[in-house]
Each structure stands twice: as C-alpha cells, then as structure tokens.
Amino acid sequence: MSNDKDKGAGAEDKAEVTATGSETATTESSTARPGTSPAAESRPGRKGGARKGEPKPERTASAAASGKEEPTVSKTTPTPAKSADTAARASSPARGQSAALLIATLAFLLSLGVGAALFYLWQQGEDVRTDQARQLERLTAELQARDERLARLDAGLGRETAGREELSTRIDTRLGTVEQGLTRLQDRTTRQERGWQLMEVKHLQRMAAHRLRLMDDPDGARRALAAADEILAELGDPRLLPVREAIAAEVQALEDMARPDIPGIALRLERLASELRPIPLKGQVPQDVGLGAEDRGLIAGDGADAEAPWWVQAYSEIRAALAEHISIRRHAEPIRGLPDAEVELFLRQLLTLRLEAARIAVLRRDDAEFQRHLDGATALLDEHFDAAAGAGLRERLQALKGVTLRPEPPDISGSFTLLDELEG
Prior knowledge:
This protein has about 425 residues and is an all-alpha fold. The protein is built from 13 helices and no strands. It folds into three domains: about 1-130; about 130-260 and about 410-424, no CATH class; about 260-330 and about 340-400, no CATH class.
C-alpha cells in the first residue's frame, strides 16, 4: 500500500512539473518578440521550436492541462522590460533544473523504497518458502515415518493374524483330537459300565443260587434276583428282555416254594420233651386180672364210690394207704427184673436227648438227622415205655416224620445261563 501511495505522489509531482513547464513556455512565448525567440536562438534544433522569422504558437496552462488547443496570442512587450525578461529567462531554467532534480531524487528514493519493499517482500517470500519447504520436508518425513510405521504395523498385524490362524487351526485340531478321545473314552466307559453292571447281575444270580442251595434261604435268593432285575431294567437293553422274563419266572417259583414252619416244629418237639415225665415205663402199670370194674378203678386211683359197700370203701382206703409203699403188678409176658431208678432216669433222659437232637436238626434244616432222631425216639418209646400211655406221643412223632424240612428248591440257573449266552 505504501508503494501505491509513492506512485501516486510521483504522478502528482510529474503533473506539477508539466504544468510548470507549460506556464514557463507560455511566459516565454508571451515575452518573446515576434521573430526573435531566445529559445530558438539558444536551441535551434529543439523539437517543437519555432522556425526563424515565424511566430511561436502559445497555449495556456488550462489548455495544456485539458489537452485542447487554444489560439495563439502574440503579445509585444515594450523594450524597456528586456532586462526583466532576461532575468526571468535566467531564473526559469534554474527552477526547472531544481524541479527535475527533485523529481529525480524523489523517483530515485521511490525506486529505492520500492526496491527495498520488493526485496523485503521477496526476502519474506523466500523465508516463507523456506519455512514451507522445511515444513513440507518435515511433513514428508513424518508421512514417510508413518507410512513405514503403518507398513510395520501391517506386517506385524499380518504375522499376528497368521499366527492366530495357525494357533486356531492347531487348537481346532487338538479339540478335534480331544473330542475323538473323549468319545472313545465315553464309549469305552459306557461299555465298561455296561460290562460292570452285567457282571453285577451275574454276581447277584450266583448269590441267589448260593442262598438257595447252600443256605436254604429262598427269601434271600428272591431278593437277589429282584436286585438283578432292577439293574437290567436300568440298562434298558431290549436284547436282555428274555433274561428278565427268566428272572421273573424264577422269582415266582421261589414265592410258590413250600416253606416249612421251622420255629413251630421246634416248639412242638420242645413240648413233646416236656410230656415224657408222666409216661411210665413198661411193667410199672399193674394188670387188673380177676378184678372188677371197681377194683380196676381203684387200681387206677379213682377212689371208692360213696354208695359202695363199707367193705369196699375200707379196702380202698387200705389199698390207697399201702399204694404209697406197695405196688401190685401183673404181666402177661414173662416177668423181668424191674428197672431201678437210675435205669428209668437214663431212659427218660435218652428219649429227651433224642427229641432235643431232632429239634436241633429242625433248626439246621437237616432232614436226614431229623428223621433219624425221630426214629430213635419212637423206638425208645415202643421198647421201654408203656404203649397205652405213650400212644399220643407216638402219634405226634409219626406226624412230624411226614414233615420235609428242606423241600426241593426250584431251578434258578436258567436266567444266568441265558445271560451268559447273550453276552458270549
């Protein structure tokens, strides 16, 4: 903006100089005489000068300023004013030279200012361009560094992605292997568990047979078979249905099996042993030969009737008194020696031991021993004890001989054999 102001000032100065020159020229033309122009004399070859002997046209300052031509007016001055004109003509070139010098100085200063301003602006532009170049270089370096960093990041990301993909592939492979192993292990475990359950079923079947055959425990055998059937039901294998049907038939056979009342038989034998004391031995009961009904009643210990004759009553009282010390016996068989008290005690204890041994055989469910001891007790009763007095005991002993302590058990091995065939 300062340059524009300087240029405007220079233009105004030039216009002033032009106007001054025009005024000077007008003055000179007005003071010159016709036909004798000092300028023409001093500068005969100057452009725009008048020829000799021709009047020089004049323009006013206003005409010069407006660019229009005005008619030339020739003026004549009187001769006495020649010295003043000469002085004016002498001072006019000096003023023109001063103005030109001033204008030149101003123009030079203006050109210096403009040049300095242009140099300053150029220097500023160079600094700006240098700064911009530096910034551009810095930005370019930063962009290159960022590009390199991005390239490194891309490369690292690619490597990481590849590593992750490889790791994922390895993990998938290992997972597949683990799943296959788990599947095989599960199948093996399932097979082993099924095998263990079937082995448990077989063990229960063997236990049932053992309880039935060796321990004579049909209830325990039935419970063992029921437990085996529950395990087969948990397996849910339709191929094992025939085994379950066989087990059901065996359980039903065990429920229908005859079960003797072992405690009741033992108690009956114990009561029989307690009934031996009143039964007399053979030869201890007197025979009522030659006696009537009344005598037989007395011998039997019934006592005399109140309406009997006095002598009968007296005889009864005497016999009752003597019966405590004297006993009269009559035997149809040949008379043998009477057993003493020790022999009687021995026979009674022997019969009691036979019955007790039979009771123990009942508790042991031993049919052979039970029958043997019952036969021995019956033989002792028939040989040494009175037949009439021991008839009831003998009948009860014969009834016990018909009891089977250990009935024939059913066959419960069919389910075990069938299961073994299916699994084999």
